[in-house]
Amino acid sequence: MATAKLAPEQIHEKAAAGSQTESSNQPLIFECSVRGKMGVDLEPAHEREPRGAEILGPDLCRDDLPGFPELSEPEVMRHFLRLSQLNFSPALQFYPLGSCTMKYNPVVNDELAGLAGFAALHPLVPAAMAQGALELMARLEAALAAVTGMDAVSLHPAAGAQGELTGLLIARAHFRKRGEHRGKVLVPDTAHGTNPASCRLAGFEVVVAPSNRHGFLEAAEIRSLLDPTVAALMVTNPNTLGVFEPEILEIAEELHRNGSLLYMDGANMNALFGVAQPGQMGADILQLNLHKSFSTPHGGGGPGAGPVAVKRELEPFLPVPRVKRETDGWVLDYDRPDSVGRLRAFHGNFAMLVRAYAYVLALGANGLAQASQLAILAANYVRARLRAVFPPATEAPALHECVLTHDLEQRTGVTTLDIAKRLLDFNIHPPTIYFPLVVPGALMIEPTETESRATLDEFVAAMKRIYAEAEKEPETVKQAPHSLRLRRIDEAQAARHPILRWTSRGSG
Fold this sequence. Notes:
Blueprint: H1 8-16, H2 52-56, H3 73-86, H4 107-113, H5 116-119, H6 131-148, E1 152-154, H7 160-177, E2 184-188, H8 194-201, E3 205-209, H9 219-225, E4 230-236, H10 248-257, E5 261-266, E6 285-288, E7 308-310, E8 322-326, E9 329-333, H11 350-386, E10 402-404, H12 408-412, H13 416-423, E11 432-433, E12 443-445, H14 453-472, H15 474-478, H16 491-496
Parallel strand pairs: 2-3, 2-4, 4-5, 5-6
Antiparallel strand pairs: 1-7, 6-7, 8-9, 10-12, 11-12
Helix pairs in contact: 1-14, 4-11, 6-11, 7-8, 9-10, 11-14
């Protein structure tokens, strides 16, 4: 039977009453254990696959795991299903996590990645027996090059941050090949935190490039920072304020005149499909986040993928191996003397590449363009609807995400963190908060193209309700969440001193 969709006011009533709806005393699986309980193995011993001891020998296998919980099969199923229902996910809730592009991942992509010819392919199989996989990779590289306006793509890096590191190592190798020592990289004050970290890992000194009061870089400011030691500017476009860099062409000209490179962080590529190409903006190096723009899973549902795209002059420095077409088929080419080498085992997180290629094929050029246009429309809709209570951090036109601010902390003591926690009571994952750092109390909201207007209206109504609560009953917001199994935790303490194993109560 279909479940009726709640109106925003009904969601608010449910959220307000949420503190009575969820028990915080759900026992751990260890506490449910009863000695002797077990699931049922209906497979006859002579028909089953060899078990661990039969394969490895008894010396390498345990007969028993002390303290391992003993439960029936239904209890185990209910436990893990219950845990899964405690999670927030783009498949279950609105997830406007700014800069992360948490869009819905089409299930058909998972089905295609699970095809036996892909999922069962051993990473050490000879190239002659992996022709379909290699051709898929070559086609995805070509598609990404076309979308970005770049000349060559490597699918090798395992994640966006590793893609950043790869791009910077390519820049370093490029200058070493030319006999130039350039040890600085310019990084905007609005940059993702991984940008300066990647620069340091690649051996560069970071020089901060300030943005203006409108939230973007000025060519004159970049010109003042350039000298023969500057290797590159590392910029996200659109930047982390959700603003397009209007002087990007002039900035690229200044960099190239100085012999420097323009590195573009492609984390926000979801705003550019079919609208603009980084290659046409003067970018020399670009990394993409397939788990963002190309709708492959994030984090624990991943792993990710961070392809690197470059202009033709930098192609020799891409990581090995490279997918190459020869007369007798596709091969992996390791004979590349100028390459930065291998950054990880094997070549790409292949299941993510299958998903991304399926996504590109499903949407096509027109569909990708429409996705970006809808993402931009959604962000501007939210910004316009919330302007009266949460004004935008900048008046520059927003693209795929908007950064909002507020004055509630000064007037009522309600912080941005409190607002984020209260949103959980409305079954909405909070947006990114306190980032970018240049915006006090920032709320960074990215709706993506996969959400309906009705969902955006529910989010707007929840935010307005929280704003009103902050003014009239601030403790309701400060004590949130009220409806979840766990209430407030000391997040700093949890990060510094995580509890990684269960111990029985009273045993320390």
